[in-house]
């Protein structure tokens, strides 16, 4: 019996020690190792009764329960080691003169390791390198601007005559800001509502969402400076969404002070359906006049990401009236889609609201998209079309001449 106890003690020592060394688990296995050695039934020379038995099955369960924890710890250690190896490789590439960022985070390193090929890894590192250069350039510009501001402030302090002019301009700008704010505050009570539908985040990429928010910021600024501004509503707006984060980047602390209405509810819950008109380029109904009693809705999407019929399908699903701008009625459309940016739509609607003149309103459409207005005489229209055709024909002839010269030179070389 003493020989069996000695054999079991040596087995417990060896298995626990090797398992702990292999997986790095010391916390759970060494107390078990100590209890097995110091247990009365395993001590040398200790009296042993027939009732005392070693439960090997329980001991195996305990040993197996420690193995997954050891494997998890080993995988974490392996992941950390791979991240460190990737960081060392990036540092070596940077010292070798490659386009690699100086500072790279652990998340970016994990994204780099997930790249399937070497070419994709190079592209990702170049992207991070260019992004870092842009940040450094912006920081340098901000520092230069701050230095120029300090220099001009010192010059103004040295000249007391200009101080009065600067104080007057500051008072004038403050008065103008108060006037704008007063008009927008009045529009929130008495003004015509204009709704931005903020439910298209899933249909756009993060870059397109950022462009959309930028256009909405421009729209809010032009509406604020208008004589008779709209009461802007952001409907279907979710907190902590990508829209929300981009707005906070632009407005920062002024986001909570904006004179607009932000709500999570749908516009059909805020306004009656018979007064809502959804403006979409896919609508078969052409907008003839601007109605001051209607509530116009604009989909918050950028030009590049608009999928055909998305906003129209949403309006039909809700049972709303739709309309599109009469671009073909007033403009000789040349090239490009008939989708306009959000700030262009805001300028057009503000001009229609103030004047009701479509020609003045449609002047905000980019000039590259149309040749002229339909209201001109037939001879002027023919001249314009002939000029466009002549330019196209001239370009084709230039291309043909270049191709002929290239082919002729190839024939001479072959001879």
UniProtKB/TrEMBL annotation:
Enzyme superclass (EC): transferase
Ranges of residues in domain SAM-dependent MTase TRM10-type: 180-372
InterPro entries for the chain: MT_TRM10-typ, MT_TRM10-typ_sf, Trm10_C_MTase_dom, tRNA_m1G_MeTrfase_euk
Signal peptide (UniProt feature, chain positions): none
EC number of this enzyme: 2.1.1.218, 2.1.1.221
One cellular-component annotation, GO: mitochondrion
Keyword Iron-sulfur: no
GO biological process: methylation; mitochondrial tRNA 5'-end processing; positive regulation of mitochondrial translation
GO molecular function ontology, one term from the record: tRNA (adenine(9)-N1)-methyltransferase activity
Main location: mitochondrion
Keyword terms, alphabetized: Coiled coil, Methyltransferase, Mitochondrion, S-adenosyl-L-methionine, Transferase, Transit peptide, tRNA processing
Keyword Transferase included in the entry's annotation: yes
Subcellular localization, as worded in the UniProt entry: Mitochondrion
Chain intervals for the UniProt region annotation (Disordered): 141-161
Source organism superkingdom: Eukaryota
Reaction it catalyzes: an adenosine in mRNA + S-adenosyl-L-methionine = an N(1)-methyladenosine in mRNA + S-adenosyl-L-homocysteine + H(+); adenosine(9) in tRNA + S-adenosyl-L-methionine = N(1)-methyladenosine(9) in tRNA + S-adenosyl-L-homocysteine + H(+); guanosine(9) in tRNA + S-adenosyl-L-methionine = N(1)-methylguanosine(9) in tRNA + S-adenosyl-L-homocysteine + H(+)
Name assigned to this protein: tRNA methyltransferase 10 homolog C
